[in-house]
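Morning!

As promised:
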Amino acid sequence: MKVATGGHKKIKDLHPHEAIAPGTGLCAGCGGLEGLRLGLKELGDDFLICNAAGCFTLLSVYPFTPLKGSWLYTTMGGPVPAAQGVRDALDIRMRYRGLEEKENLQVIVVAGDGSSNDIGFGASSAAIHRGLDFIYFCYDNEAYGNTGFQLSAASPFGSATQTTPSTYVHEAGTEINKKDLFEIWKAQKPAYLATVSPREPIDLSNKFARARALKGPRMFICMSPCPTGWGFEPKEAQLIAKLAVDTGIFPVKEYFEGEVTHTVRPRKRLPVEKFLERQKRFQHLFEPHRQEDVIRQIQKRVDEYWRNYE
Amino acid sequence: MKTQKKIMLTGNKAAAWGARMAGVEYVPAFPITPQTEIVETLAKWFADGTLQGKFTNMDSEHSMFMAAGSAGATGVRVFTASSSQGILHGMESLYTITGWRTPMVIVNVSRALATPITLEPDHNDVMSTRDCGLIQLHAETCQEVFDFILMGYRISEDPEVCLPVLVNLDGFYLSFTREPVLIPDEKDVRNFLPLYTATQPVFQASRPMARASAVFGGATYTSFKLQQELAARHAEKSFNQVAQDFKKYFGRFYGPLETFHLDDAEYVFVMSNSFATKGKSAVIKLRQQGIKAGLLKLRLFRPFPSEAIASALGGCAKVAVIDQNLAPGMGGITYPEIVTSLYSRKDRPEKILSVIGGLGGKDIEDQDFMAIIDHLDKPDRGTPLYLYDEGDVKGFNRLQQIAKFNEALK
């Protein structure tokens, strides 16, 4: 089956329509919010977001909402089953109780990497298993950002978090590798699965347009540079996002009907330290002395990944 | 009176029939002993078209209650059931969905909590949900289970309430005991409980809304919690109105409490759920021996009908509150609630004894009720009476002897 491409080629092709009004309580320079803003442009206003506890909880603070569509705050591990209940209820009402199709909603889960990789992981796996018709948007800032940046299963090797600080005993900070959520979700063969970057808006928009035309579990992992947690100026968010792609640290890809396609390829991959050196969470790799071994391991892991695709 | 057919049903089947006759449209489910028979029965009815709607096999009780709540917020009539560890696993969701103010009926089949793990009943599971904002109805018989589910939807969907109703029944003693149950005609049930139309705004495209948004500041939080408090308190009035209506349609009347030989009683047992039947049997036997015993059964447990309890127990000389639960370091969980209800009454009982019994399915037998009477006549020792005697100690030691426990420790 061929899916809709979205057909966006240039920035000016993107919808002028906004489903999120500006001025939310989220941090300046939040990469995840930019990703969600671009994604919602493609989905229309008839949506309901089931939100997991996390940074994005601050999108709607009583009695305000920046959204054109609906919002339901759930729990940290419960946004996906909440989406199940809404989806089931709408289906029941449309099938048996005369609810018109125009009242239907696109059910979206918005969850951080902590919810997605850790506390809500089992419930998401179960929903893919059930074939739940929904869109999952994971804003991945690679730690528990809302509580002040503690280790999550998405925190990368060599990064410092509040609960994996770099010390004389544990110089690297985080000594374990990021969980590969893309591969784990792929193993369950969802209808659609993609990574997106706010620095690649055309790619992102086309992927949401594709997802909109499909049914079933449609999963997104959005690289979400986090000024407060990663330690950079908000104005550099786009640059950090670009370097994540250009160094090959964050592969921009999609999975559809058994095929993985890299939709944005770095022409010539930059050394990983170009990405690392601009962030406070990796500063211990460069000061007071350079941790060559850790930087080399990060580079090696990236090289090994791309060896399969270049 | 309308025609009602009488069939033999277990407590679990009565619960499933209650959901069926209520016209539930959505059942998110997860199995747990001794509740499983309820969702198995409903699964079959959805699968063969007896019920219209959807049955969804969920991945945990935490997920199940989330799905139940969000479906309620999207405008369908929801039913689900759980027990014991499942209630604990779903606890975060229970607090969440009561705050969402979505109507539904939840059945809890009481089973004691680990550790140690066991299948048999006591009330620590349902007591753990005491403070989360659920309306609670506790059933003694299979008929009460069925009737309380129908009544429960009326109370839950009352626009002044909008809270989930939990109907409790004891595992094993009631869940697997067959009793005759009167089932009314579906068309008569529809007059009492029409098919569901939400009275509050529900999710659909023409009505975008934000629900359960975060709040900043204690005063805003307090506003929401006090609304929940007012709604829960209103549920007592709602219960009484619905009970009158239920009597009109089906001939059975349920007050928030049931009194049994209470008028001239000198000794009163306060009980709930299926063991109240054992209490009633003991009352009859005690009266045959010339002992003026009586019983007060709690039906509506949340909201707590303090006034009605005070009126029922005011003037009674000696009262024993039998808790089939244990808050270690405190004792029985309902005991302080009963005492509080009576505190300001001039005619409060001269003695109110806390009794702990029936833990993990341990039977409460006639001699236990006799021991309670003896205890009520003795000076107060300030601690609860634990229904655990030398025979029980011997039995426990015997178990250890069989396993050569002491030898193994050497």
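Chain A touches chain B through 48 residues (CB under 8 Å).

Hope this helps with the figure draft.
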